[in-house]
Each structure stands twice: as structure tokens, then as C-alpha cells.
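Before the break, one more example. Copy the sequence into your notebook; we will annotate it together after we see the structure.
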Amino acid sequence: MWHPGAVLETGEDYREAVLSGQWWEKRRFTGCDFTGADLSGLRTRGCTFDECVFTRADLSRSRHDASAFRSCTFDRTVLVESRWTSCSLLGSSFRDSGFGGMALTECDLSLASLAKARLRKLGLSGLRLREANLTEADLTGADLRGSDLTGARLQATKLEGADLRGARLDANALVQADLKGAEVDVETAIAFAAAHGLVIR
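Here is what the structure looks like once it is written out:
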């Protein structure tokens, strides 16, 4: 998601920087380090972040529109009450981060690593989660309607009370996932039965 005329910064050190409440538009960052930075209330539009580090950064209440965070590291990052619209988080990894109240709309998290992430009751409808690692993630009560989970790793993923109506899950995901208590449509129920060897007449 590159924009002509975007400011390019490569390898910059923003560790512990106080950048709260700023407005960034069409800026481009590659290999920059935002470890421990205060980015609370930050607003980005049309920005790209490639292989940047957000370890222990505070992104609470931040707003991101049509921005890309590709192959970035979110380790113990504060993401509570952040809003992401039409963003790409392709290949990014999240570990021990706080997601409370986080909202994602029309975002691409393909190949993202969200193993053991606590995503309880989050609105995740319509997202691209193709080949994402959701192993042991807690998606209890999450809204996953219409999301694309093709190829996602769902071993020991908690989906009790999750809404999976209209979601796309392949046969492997249907076998791996524990769908007990999840809400699914008839098409997914039939696919689930077939994936478990049942013959439907």
C-alpha cells in the first residue's frame, strides 16, 4: 500500500518516543523500532510499516485507515480501544498483547500469528484470516461472520459462543477446531459433518 510522495524512513529508532495524539498521512516506515513508544491516540491514513517493531508500545485508542503493517512485531503491545479500517496486517505477529475493545473492519490478517491471543467477544467479521495461526487463541464469543479462515491453524482454538455464520473454513480447519457451542449456518454444519466422515443423505 505505497502512495506516491510518501515520506520514507528506514531503520529509524523511535524507542520510548512520545508520539501520542499525532496525525500521520502517507508516511512509509521500513525496519523502524517503536519499542516502548507512546503511540496512544495516534492516527494514520495511507501509511505503510514494513518489518517494524512495536514491542511494549502503547497503541491504545489509536485509529488507522487504509494503512499497512506488514510483517510487524506486536509483542506485549497495548491495542485496547484501537480502530483499524481497511488495513493490512499481513504476516504480522502478536504475542501477549492487549486487545480489549479493539475493532477491525475490512482488514487483512492473512499469515498473521495470533497464537494464544485473547480475542474474546471481539468484532472480527468480514476479515481475511487466510493461513493465520490461531492455535490456542481464545475466540470465545467473537463475531467472525463472513470471515475467511481458509487454511487457518485452529488447533485447540476456543470458539465457544463464536458467530461463524458465513465464515469460510476448509476441511482441515473444521477438523482441527473445537466448534462446540459456536453458531454456524447450515452450509458450515454440512461441511463439518462431511469433514468428520458423516454421510448426509
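The mean pLDDT is 91. The first helix runs from residue 171 to 176. Try to locate both features in your own notes.
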